[in-house]
Amino acid sequence: MKRNTSATAVVALALTAAMGLSACGRSTEKAATPADKAATVSSGKATGTITVWAMGGEGDKLPTLAKEFEALNPGVKINVTPMPFDAAHDKLATAITAGKTPDISQIGTTWMGEFATQALDPTPASIDKTSFFEGAQKTTEVGGTSYGVPWYVETRLVYYRKDLAAKAGITTMPTDWAGLKAMAKAMQTKAGAKWGIDLQPGGQGSWQSVLPFAWSNGAEVATSDQKKYTFDTPGTVEAAKYYQSFFTDKIAAKQLPLNSRAPSFVDGSVPMFISGPWEMGGLNDLGKAGFKEKYGVMQMPKQKTATSFVGGSDLAVFKKSTNRDSAWKFVQWLSDPKVQVKWYSLSTDLPSVKSAWTDPALAADPKLAVFGKQLEDAKAPPATATWEQVAAAFDTEMEKVAKSGLDPAAALKTVQSKADSIGTGN
């Protein structure tokens, strides 16, 4: 899930921590059952009442779009219930346990492994799964079955100050690990920055910073059948060593600022960071007129690939929906490229449907175009029932790697041991 300003990104990180803690101890959830079959959806217009749960800003804005669907389907009524992000996970879990779910809900991508097989309806064949970015589509799949659709997406790029890069003598943007680190160092030694790059030094949610390096190095964190975690591999160890080197070489700070990264980026003291599209609005506002021309974004550095993290939210219909046909019709309508562009104009949520990116509303923005390109090579963590719990263990060890200089190989052995003990729940 994304936030739209750099200030709320800090809040979102705290909420991610709360969600991760709330997921602990759920390794005994129902295992994936590939035998789940997707039923068909009838033809004709939607009818009846459709209840939808949506979170944060999405919950506030969705009713506006829902009115268009109601106008196209005069016999239907959509009731949207907004909920705060920090309460969403537990509210969904409670509703599933009680058998009192809505027809549709927004689902965090890292929650799908926990909720899918026990509560969600498989995606009908009438929805074209190939229309979505592959990494986003994978977030809906558990045990070989898709449960829902990617609603909107986000991915991470390298933000950099173009003016300070020029001052550092960098005329060609780096494309690999060595080049990124050299650029960050040059920002210090030649452009006068205090730190070359802002990387999260472990702690809650730091897996989102580290795993893209592992993925770009050809590593995976689970087997293809998602029956076992695979953290303790040479590819992930090498990625963690690369991540650690920014801290040991004093290119990145071991302590993050208390507010947000935007002020340090705007004043030039930290002229690079890795983050998502929501940062742009806050940077433009803080930097004031003309600042948006002073910075650029580039794709993640390549080792074997140039893979980044894909996040966002999925939309799912519950097995206990009392209006399944109409619920899926609404979900399918929200997946139409033109509707996705309308949703972007309302929410700034990036479309999950690839063809929507050809619309001038997105294609005309050069920074957004880079995000669209990165989405072609972006991955999510495995859709396991215990991911949040295992990720917390990973974050703890990465903090030791970044701040205390712990050997990455030893740290990942500890993560592997904890992950083996927890299991995937699949």
Please give a handful of descriptors for the protein shown:
426 residues, seven-stranded mixed β-sheet, three-stranded antiparallel β-sheet, 17 helices, 44% helix, globular, disordered N terminus
Describe this structure in words.
This protein has helices at 6-22, 56-72, 85-98, 112-119, 134-138, 162-167, 177-189, 207-216, 234-248, 262-267, 279-287, 324-334, 337-347, 360-363, 366-374, 387-404, 408-422; strands spanning 48-55, 76-83, 104-108, 141-142, 145-146, 149-155, 157-161, 272-275, 295-298, 308-317, 350-351, 378-379. It has 426 residues and is of the alpha/beta class. Strands 1, 2, 3, 6, 10, 11 and 12 form a seven-stranded mixed β-sheet that branches. It has a three-stranded antiparallel β-sheet with strand order 8-7-9. A hairpin with a 2-residue loop joins β4 and β5. α2 packs across α13 (337-347) and α16 (387-404) packs antiparallel against α17 (408-422). The longest helix is centred in the last third of the chain and has 18 residues, at 387-404. It is globular, with a radius of gyration of 21 Å. Residues 1-34 have low confidence and may be disordered.
Q: Round the mean pLDDT to the nearest integer and report it.
A: 90
Q: How would you name the oligomeric state of the polypeptide chains in this document?
A: single chain
Q: Which residues sit in consecutive blocks of at least 5 with pLDDT less than 50? A: 1-34
The fraction of residues in strands falls at 5-15%
**Count of individual helical segments:** 17
Main sheet, how many strands, which sense, barrel? 7 strands, mixed
Percent of residues in helical segments? 40-55%
Tell me, what's the shape? globular
Radius of gyration: 21 Å
Please write the string of helix (H) and strand (E) elements: HEHEHEHHEEEEHHHHHEHEEHHEHHEHH
Helix/strand/pairing category = alpha/beta
Number of strands: 12
- Distance separating the two termini: 24 Å
